[in-house]
Design goal:
Helices cover about 50% and strands about 20% of the residues. The protein has about 280 residues and is of the alpha/beta class. The protein has a single domain (about 70-280), classed as Rossmann fold (3-Layer(aba) Sandwich). The longest helix is centred in the first third of the chain and has 41 residues, at about 1-40. The radius of gyration is 21 Å and the shape is globular. The chain binds S-adenosylmethionine. S-adenosylmethionine binds near residues 100, 102, 103 and 183.
């Protein structure tokens, strides 16, 4: 009996909380949209990054990361500590798909490398400000790391710009964190409107394999990537094409989105399986 009261009382409190939560959302959501729009206008970015949604996506990631802060915390910490343990001293480190640098221990990079170059198709405003006041220690390179943003047809050659490739090859260490599964998205969305899924899939596989080969050719490289996804307790489904990867040095699960984040409560929370690799030509 006592238990019944507790359950009934609990559920009405939950309803009240949900009502307050939805009222808060009605006020906050337009405000956040205005802030995102303002940031979109103020962030220096190429026309391509603005028009193909990459800048908007970059800004949206920050808001998503803030909403999911507590569930992302252990994943971000795992990325940082893997990098700290695996990256030793050098002159020049290149961070690929650096974005908001949430998963990178910048202090460790500053203590161990004299030159840090961040590569991304678009750099968030706060990172541009950080680089500006870094006394030249942090350089930004805005570039396409897929080699496919300008490729109209997935059966055409896909390759990195030559100057970009030689800049990357000259670095002592490459870091690619939470980029690999994102790398082909803009090109594959565009190809998907005109080509069949087999051709698009082959293009995506080439982009991902090229990225892995770039890391393999470096003297030292770290790759951290999500490799599979699941909702609730459903089966894991793979996120990468059939690429050749060595055995991971570490694995963990990233609670990427609580069920409410997608508005798909029936499916359940979304998780990603993350794997971390070390490539070394000295091995
Ligand atoms: C999931 S985020 C990576 C997370 C990032 N390390 C952080 O902590 O914010 C993926 C990043 O890859 C970048 N990106 C996606 N496609 C790219 C491309 N073709 N070339 C360069 N950067 C790309 C995005 O702009 C974004 O910053």
């Amino acid at each position: 009996m006592g238990n019944n009261y507790a359950i009934v009382g609990g559920s009405s409190r939950c309803k009240k909380l949900r009502r307050t939560d939805s009222r808060l959302r009605i006020v906050l959501e337009p405000l956040l949209m205005i802030l995102e729009l303002l940031e979109w206008c103020l962030t220096p970015a190429s026309l391509r990054a603005r028009t193909n949604g990459l800048l908007a996506e970059q800004i949206a990631i920050r808001h998503r990361a803030n909403r999911c802060r507590s569930s992302w915390q252990s994943h971000l910490q795992s990325c940082k500590s893997f990098l700290t343990r695996q990256l030793s001293r050098g002159n020049h480190v290149a961070v690929l798909g650096s974005g908001h640098l949430r998963d990178i221990d910048l202090r460790h990079l500053k203590n161990n490398f004299s030159r840090i170059t961040l590569f991304d198709v678009v750099h968030p405003l706060e990172v541009q400000i950080l680089a500006l006041f870094s006394g030249g220690r942090i350089e930004l390179c805005s570039c396409d790391l897929s080699g496919a943003l300008h490729v109209r047809d997935p059966s055409l050659p896909i390759a990195l710009d030559k100057n970009l490739r030689s800049l990357l090859e000259s670095a002592d260490a490459l870091v690619s964190s939470c980029l690999l599964t994102q790398l082909a998205l803009p090109a594959s969305h565009r190809w998907g409107k005109h080509f069949n899924s087999a051709l698009v899939g082959a293009g995506v596989a080439r982009i991902q394999q090229n990225h892995i080969e770039l890391l393999e050719s470096a003297s030292t490289a770290i790759l951290i990537t999500d490799t599979a996804q699941r909702y609730g307790h459903h089966e894991w489904s793979p996120l990468l094409s059939e690429v050749r990867l060595p055995k991971p040095a570490e694995r963990w699960v990233w609670d990427i989105a609580p069920a409410e984040e997608h508005g798909l409560e029936d499916l359940g929370a979304e998780q990603r399986s993350v794997e971390a690799f070390v490539f070394s030509s000295h091995a």
